[in-house]
Amino acid sequence: MSNLLKGSSSPHIRHEDTTAGIMFDVVLALAPAAVYGCVIFGLKALFVLIATIVSAVLAEYLWNLILKKPQTIGDMSALVTGVLLGMNLSPETPIWIAIIGSIAAIIVVKQMFGGLGYNFVNPALAARIILLVSFPSFMTKFSEPISDVVSSATPLADLKATSIKTLFFGMHSGCIGETSAFLLIIGGLYLIVRRVINPIIPISFIGTVALLAAVSGENPLKYILSGGIMLGAIFMATDYVTSPTENIGKLIFGIGCGLITFVIRRFGSLPEGVSYSILIMNIITPLINRIPLRHPFGFKEGKKV
Q1: Phi, psi (deg, nearest 5) at residue 304
Q2: CATH of domain 19-291
Q3: What is the torsional sign of CA 268, 272, 277, 282?
Q4: Which of 235, 177, 228, 234 minimizes the C-alpha distance to 204?
Q5: Where are the beta strands (DSSP E) in the chain?
Q6: Cα dihedral sign for 187, 83, 128, 288?
Q7: Tens-digit pLDDT profile for the chain (305 aa)?
Q8: What is the maximum alpha-carbon separation in the chain?
Q9: 145 and 176 in contact (C-beta within 8 Å)?
Q10: Which candidate, 18, 287, 291, 241, places its Cα nearest to that of 125?
Q11: Which label site among 10, 139, 192, 263 has the fewest CB atoms less than 10 Å from its CB?
């Protein structure tokens, strides 16, 4: 039995927060941007979100049922994964592709690695990349708000023609939940006030992209307000399981995400690099966690005091 237990050095602090409570706060923070996406893109966006949420929760339920494991849908982590995946998809995404994405996120990325707390990358982001690679033509079709379908990229493709006001409030094409930077920031501030997330990762992530954009001659405000930077930096890069635990590690993680995002946007063939940057930094998080080595309480540099 002892081989199954993992502990850290004392002192240990008991906290009243629960996984379900934290996930509920995340859902509340995401709700304004998600609802706004459904308002400006119509019922098609709502159906995509419903598909990702229902299929994510159902996939986790059936996995636990078939393998005779304790049910975990009550911790709301599958719900959050479904919401995040749906917000990262175009409103033009076919429902069957959205369902495949949720199943991949829950079964392949999360449950096959042991469930919540054992996945080494963010499930929603990994699923989005799987869909991008598998169905590129469907995943790159966007629509203007309450308008006809257009086969075009997000405002990232033409930043000069898009105003800061449009980017900030979100009346433009893009994924369902990434258009309104204003509502995403409001949600992020709520999570910071509730102490659900640490602001180090979002600030260092967004700040790095803004600095590099300014140095390269781009408009830093337009650069950080466009694409998925706000959604990724605030709600996905801050995932407890796949991000560093110490503050110095969080800073390194955020800067790394910002650097990789900028490099992909600036020099890559893809217009967006947020998903790939966070996924790469997720993979090296165990190495980052080794940088700020902690000493047992009552010891200094390996010696008892």
Answers
A1: -70, 140
A2: 1.10.3430
A3: negative
A4: 234
A5: 142-143, 149-150, 299-300, 303-304
A6: positive
A7: 444 444 444 444 455 678 889 999 999 999 999 999 999 999 999 999 999 999 999 999 999 999 999 999 999 999 999 999 999 999 999 999 999 999 999 999 999 998 888 888 999 999 999 999 999 888 888 777 765 444 444 555 555 657 788 888 878 788 999 889 999 999 999 999 999 999 999 999 999 999 999 999 988 998 899 889 999 999 999 998 999 999 999 999 999 999 999 999 989 877 688 999 999 999 999 999 988 666 555 555 555 54
A8: 70
A9: no
A10: 241
A11: 10
Burial 187-207 (b: 16+ CB within 10 A, else e): bbebbbeeebbbebbbbbbbb
DSSP-assigned letter for residue 140: T
**62 Cβ contact list (under 8 Å, min separation 6):** none
Closest Cα to residue 51, out of 3, 90, 108, 1? 90
Helix (H, G, I), strand (E, B) or coil at 112: helix
Alpha carbon 8 to chain centroid, angstroms? 28
Q: Look up tokens 């200094």; give the residue.
A: 300
| 163 three-class SS | coil
Domain ranges of the chain: 19-291
Integer Cα distance of 113 and 106 in angstroms: 10
- pTM given for the model: 0.86
Tokens 């906290």 correspond to 15
Distance CA 211, CA 189 (A): 22
